[in-house]
Structure formats: structure tokens, C-alpha cells
Amino acid sequence: MKEKSTGDLSFELMSQPNLDAYLSQNEDCFTNQSAAEFLIVYFQRSGMTKAALARKAGMSEVYLHQVFSGRRNPSRDRLLCLCVCLELSLEETQQLLKEACHAPLYPRNRRDSIITYGVLHRQALAEINEKLFEENEKTLF
Length: 141
Known about the structure:
Layout: H1 6-15, H2 19-25, H3 35-46, H4 50-57, H5 61-69, H6 76-85, H7 90-99, H8 110-120, H9 125-134
């Protein structure tokens, strides 16, 4: 079966008179992996310890453990801190933001453009925050 696009799903949802029918017909189109599961995969690939990641991302180890266990859902900015510290690609960052139900980085937004540039150029979190501060934009933490 051909995979449905987001546009196709949106059209079906708007035109479907019965939500239960839509849900059952499109069960295989819904994402099944949580943001925490994606994070764990990226974390394992990094070779870092959780303590090192927490320090690098400016968060407590307790909070990070809660995020990895799925008990806490990080804000968009906290998630971006983790993406930067795990050195995720822009595609991986956008995917993780989407899985966590956060807005993707948007190039028409000045702040998001600064963050995107940092992700693309593998800048350190402190470097991105410094540029955000210089440009009078809210820092990531």
C-alpha cells in the first residue's frame, strides 16, 4: 500500500464524517515511536554518558533521566539543547521536534534561523546561545 502524505491524511480527516472510521483506516500511518525512543537511539550513537550530556545541555541528570524514561516531555528549547549537544543533523532535529509535537525550526523566524545555522554548522550550544544573545533573541537556556 502506498504511504499517505500528511496532506492526504489532512484531507481525509477534514472530509471524514466519522472519526472512528478515519482512525481505524489510517492506523498504520500514525507514528508509533515516542520522542524519548528517538532520543535514546541518538544518545546511544553519541557514546556520551548521561552525566556528560546533562552537563553539556545545561540540565540536571535527574531531569534528563525523566526525559529518557518518557516521564517528562522537554520543552522545544530543552529538546533543541539536546539535539545540539548530541550533534544531530538538521533532518534528525526536525524529525525529533515533530515526534515531540513541537514546531519545526522555521527559516522565516529570525531566532530559528540562528539555531538552524548552529545545527547545520555543528556549533556548540554556548556558541548558539551567544549569537542568540547578541541578536537580542531568547537563548535556549
